[in-house]
Amino acid sequence: MRKPILFAALLLALSSARADSAASHENALKALAAKDYTTALSEFETALASDPDNIEYGSEYRQAVIQATAYDRCIKFFEKLVADNPKSSNAELNFGFAYVDKIPASGTITQVILANTALTHFSKAIELKPSWIGYYTRGNSYLFWPKIFGRTPLGVADLEQAMKLQKQDNKKIYHVRAYVSLGDAYWKLDDLSRARETWTEGLALFPDNPQLKNRLSKEGDDLKNYIEDALDPNKRVDTNLREIWTDK
Amino acid sequence: MTKHAKLLFLLIGVPVALQGANGASGIRFEEISRKAGISYTHHTRVYSGKSADVLRMFTSGGSSVAVGDYDNDGYDDVFLTDSDNGKPSHLLHNNGNLTFTDVTEKAGVGKGNDPISIVADALWFDYDNDGWQDLLIARFGTPILYHNERNGTFKDVSAASGLNKFGNTIAVVAFDYDNDGNLDLMFGNYFKPVNLLEYKTPNVLPNDLDNAVNGGGVTLWKGDGKGHFVETTEKAGFGKHTGWTLDIGHGDLNNDGFQDIYLACDYGTDRLFMNNGDGTFREVTEKAIGFDTKKGMNVDIADYDNDGLMDIYVTNITDEYMKECNMLWHNNGDGTFTDLSKETGTCMTLWGWGAKFGDFDNDGWQDLFVVNGLRSAGKDNYIPVLVNMITQPGIDFTDVNNWPSIGNMTWSGYQKKKLFRNLGSQSFKEISSEAGVDNDMDGRGIGVGDFDNDGTLDFYQSNADQPGLFYHGVTEKPGNWIELSLTGTKSNHDAIGARVTVKAGGLSLVREVNGGNGYSSQSTKRLHFGLGAAQKVDSVEIRWPSGLVERATVPINKISRIQEGLGLVRPVPTNHKGR
User: What is the pTM of this model?
Assistant: First the structure.
């Protein structure tokens, strides 16, 4: 009789934590709408502390951090969160993104250090739980490194893995990203025909996608400038993961 | 008009007389260093010990060129620095026919590189207002000040000068910051003041590669006009600056008659100081330009868009692995500046060093030459090796022993130089190849002058560990021109800080005499104005540092000498060949 009671107590506690977490999340969104960043960030942090693997909370927290330009606070928070929750893949993923979010606000050399640290956390996230978002994110990150560092082949490997996973899954709106990035990766390896093949395959599935259309409509220096602009570390990368939970 | 509306107005094209500026470029140069007898190879300092090649790389900036007429024969001469132990610098006398004679030994100005000091920059200026150019040698060490003895020889007067403070000086400018008629000196120091040739601890490098605050800052020295200088760094308001200063530019940025200061800093924020007119400066960086994290390398100041306001050009590093973009600070006239480097096409010059404005085709619009390239060596690239170090968690960048050896690796080497022709409406066109100046050497400084007095500008490009290049301007059908050699009487004799406004052919052209703007180089103090097709000069107005404003009438296609209060005096020999 004792075991079922303990189990029920545990379930109750978990359910209560989730409820608290959801309430904090609600408070955070309200505070954010009112541009009360201090409250918003605190409430997001409370929500995440109770539900560390919640990709939605983590992503929304980081978007709030970008608005508040509180990058170091965010990094410090995730540092503790992953230390307290060493098996949470999504916490590691958002930890990596916290470094990515800081890149456009940093000097050129700090950008390299941040990008490299982000990769470490993306790798840890994959190690904990191999996933489409893990492979896509890390693979795409490699593409931002200049060719001289030889990281593009690593990006290709990850993006091919993401592509493999998405082909085993139902079609999701975010799958188009892998077509864009994998094509870019091939382009970066000077394999233009494979790049165009990938973008074309993507466009067949996502016929309205402007990124694919733009790439396929450009050639030579035009295409080079377009892709280099997309991979400019000085520009903010959209790290909002909303599509992941809105298209389940 | 709002700031944005003003900017839009600028970018869509200022409706002024362009004097054919948009036509095909005829800018041409011929490299004649060997023929001219001015081909000298610079040597960076060779260190000993474990981190020898890292320190050598960090101090590879001392290849400098200073242009000045030391013997008053009307032709600008050239001083070239060397940096390795025991290697002499060189004084090259201009023979007036595009050849030079090495007179270093007779002049007695070759020394400076010894076991505890490294020559890094040089400057001609008349510190005692006697009408003869004296010479300052800036060092990683204490500076050397030479007095011009008026007979082709120089006397070392360093001991009595008061310039006895050790600094790792990479840049020096002379200007009269309080307009008292005596030239003052500002030293830009790269490393903090520890002797790299005998350092006690290895923590000598930047503490942050984007926001370093452990550099040498600057020192300011007030001259008494008799050869003695007193440090006024703190009093003048520069004491808090501890950045890695690589270059200093001075100019009157707010048209108040006093010289302001822009500091280009490696590993972090450039600084802008406005002159209060009472011997002090106020820092206006945040409001005027904002805080940057770039690798500031060079400052040149000029009115590139002929709007009567001095603008600022700063080189940074823009390469495959680091995309900073240069900064062309357009002076908005309200205490703020807008970076228009991208819009004007002057953003991308790879690993930038010296950059100089000059009207190379005499069309009335100042063009821009930029040198670049850090280290051209073997086929292996140092960058991936360096990044492995940089990305190590917790690595201490300040420790020279943590930096990987560079050996024979290349780092941003073999880079083509950039020449931007000013098209006259907030845009420039890169023409280095057609102009014949797209060499790929490891450039550092640019000494611009009209060495044959023919009215077209020439320049010397100093390179690190490589021979320098001497480019003779052979532009086909350049426009008309005037050159003005100013002499102060109440103002400092060099007239540094004097502003001249020339009106001709519908253009209003502003130039200021500067005392060493631009990385690792000093250009001629003679002011050059291209006039395009204009057949006469409508007006010349000189605002002297003393405050005196006078007008002069000068002939076109001639070099005119103007003395404060006396107007036109004896002319300078001119070799104008006609259009």
Answer: 0.93
